[in-house]
Fold this protein.
Amino acid sequence: MAAGLATWLPFARAAAVGWLPLAQQPLPPAPGVKASRGDEVLVVNVSGRRFETWKNTLDRYPDTLLGSSEKEFFYDADSGEYFFDRDPDMFRHVLNFYRTGRLHCPRQECIQAFDEELAFYGLVPELVGDCCLEEYRDRKKENAERLAEDEEAEQTGDGPALPAGSSLRQRLWRAFENPHTSTAALVFYYVTGFFIAVSVIANVVETIPCRGSARRSSREQPCGERFPQAFFCMDTACVLIFTGEYLLRLFAAPSRCRFLRSVMSLIDVVAILPYYIGLLVPKNDDVSGAFVTLRVFRVFRIFKFSRHSQGLRILGYTLKSCASELGFLLFSLTMAIIIFATVMFYAEKGTNKTNFTSIPAAFWYTIVTMTTLGYGDMVPSTIAGKIFGSICSLSGVLVIALPVPVIVSNFSRIYHQNQRADKRRAQQKVRLARIRLAKSGTTNAFLQYKQNGGLEDSGSGEEQALCVRNRSAFEQQHHHLLHCLEKTTCHEFTDELTFSEALGAVSLGGRTSRSTSVSSQPTGPGSLLSSCCPRRAKRRAIRLANSTASVSRGSMQELDMLAGLHRSPAPQSRSSLNAKPHDSLDRNCDSRDFVAAIISIPTPPANTPDESQLSSPGGGGRASSTLRNSSLGTPCLFPETVKISSL
Amino acid sequence: CVPRRIMTASAESYSVEDELEMATVRHRPEALELLEAQSKFTKKELQILYRGFKNECPSGVVNEETFKEIYSQFFPQGDSTTYAHFLFNAFDTDHNGAVSFEDFIKGLSILLRGTVQEKLNWAFNLYDINKDGYITKEEMLDIMKAIYDMMGKCTYPVLKEDAPRQHVETFFQKMDKNKDGVVTIDEFIESCQKDENIMRSMQLFENVI
């Protein structure tokens, strides 16, 4: 109604004339009148489709793009219209909002696209009208869930790169949760599955009567009693394996309490406990009855299969999520059973030799009839009994048929969701790989360009022309930008190969302390030397903003040393790694930067060997744009054009 | 001028068809020229007014509920339903339960472009709830209460229970010349014309459109 409010304002103000005679104090003067209330037609051109509307319509909502002066930025004086390079179909809805005050959500458009348009035009998504609000919210939630699933899958998915520093526990846990990651885990997975099957089959076979060949007694014994040792050994073996597995899982679990409470571990415990209880309990007659009962629990081992079967897990999850429907089913069934049992009992009371001896006895009849089993062991004989019996069976069909579709649809939804998740996980890897490829494409172009000597300032015109010919204007600008960045940070872009090689080299020497490395090997393996400076240089860039560390004691000392090294002899360049550009880069670095660099040094972080160690592996994760250290002359205080790839 | 109606609702016989018709009542105002002649607005102003009006009420009429709603949006702190009710009656000159565009324009024309006499007439009409030509103390009290209701609870200084009544007393002291307990139209106009404040404030809302 906000739009309308502006329309009614003159009326409301006019109606205030009714207060005038009653006012005891003089009323305030009216605000200044606007220039002219003449209305004009504005033309809004959205990607070629022209929309025309009154200026007043747009002015209704002054805090949006079209209602405020922000639209002047899009005004094209030549054509006298406002031009927006956006989707014209979506704009229709936006404009209708101004006209009617209600924002409708297009049904066939992507919700995300719609949201973006709203954001562009300055409309809050809460403005969506009531008619479309529910659908809008549903779709948005669906989208958000799907995206969250995607992200989750990305993060928790079986990413191949487990941090190298993970402990045995973590590796073990991962092996348990994702058996596909390593062969050992897979083997373990199948072995446990096999033993579960063996255990269950043994339980079953135990009770089959075997025909004894030795003793021609008429009494047939179940196999379990004929070969007690064999079965006992098999049972023991299985239980040992299960116990071992359980303990291993307990050890490897990141959160032991949560693991203990989880359903799967409970099943495990229930599966193996009867055996131990049976061991502990002495075999006397009093308790043996209870002992026999315990053996029933061995059948729970079959639930251990749910770790191996996703379908089983889905079923369990469905039942859990349909708990309310199942509860309703149960409740209504109970009600019906009690009612019909009572009726049948009293209907059949008169008959002698009737099966309906009591109401609970009639329960059995009711259940069998309602579920349309109809065993026939209890049958009504009176006419009234037969009438009520038929009513009972008819209503049974209804009561059971009602909640079942809900459960079925739930199961189907969850199952399909799972399928989708699996498919997505499989596709995700491909997608990510493709994305990474695209990203590295641009950097590769730059590296290629550099390797072809494109950065050679002094190169002859023709040579340069040959290798740099095929760059578009955009690429030129982009490469120039990357080049500037290199100059600024005194590092260079490199590819993964060089980087990983250098990483290996650095980590070897990285453990020694800073000062020793600096002082003892001025011309030594340039790798160490340059490893220190670039790391510091990079950290300088990063940590300049949050300079928490105080100036380390050694820094001043190092500064002097480094300054001294400025005049140190020839570089030890790992020329195998580097292309020509070294010298040129060296030359390109100004001495001006030297001063600036020194000034900027005062915040060297407390570089511990651990830090330096950590920083390099961390960089390994990045696929593209790794930095290569160039301890290029001046900005880094090192004249040596030693370059290694490191962080 | 009888407003043309596409479908009308018959008051006496109420059947299913009537219900359907009631829901789809439409109203078209008189021609633009006619309205222009009757009111003191220009064509352009009428156009602007009608566009806004039609946008808000596509059916062409405003009923009391909408009226109250509109007013409550202007005065959110208090309860403006009573005053809106009185206003509605003042605007609805032909008393058919709906304010059409003509009624709207007629009212606005008087309030914004009318003479002082006309405005005071209109105000008197507003106060005279039963339209009998006299404003009694009870009527005035109702009006006053309605106005004070619009203020709501949170006022400074705190609103006292008898504030409306006191205000009515003051009003009657000023307006009721012959002290007969009612105010007639002549007394009203005379007293208002003598009061400078009122005269000055009459010009306040001239430039609203």
The longest helix of chain A spans residues 404-451. The longest strand of chain A covers residues 41-46. Chain A touches chain B through 36 residues (CB under 8 Å). Residues 367 and 541 of chain A are 78 Å apart (CA to CA).
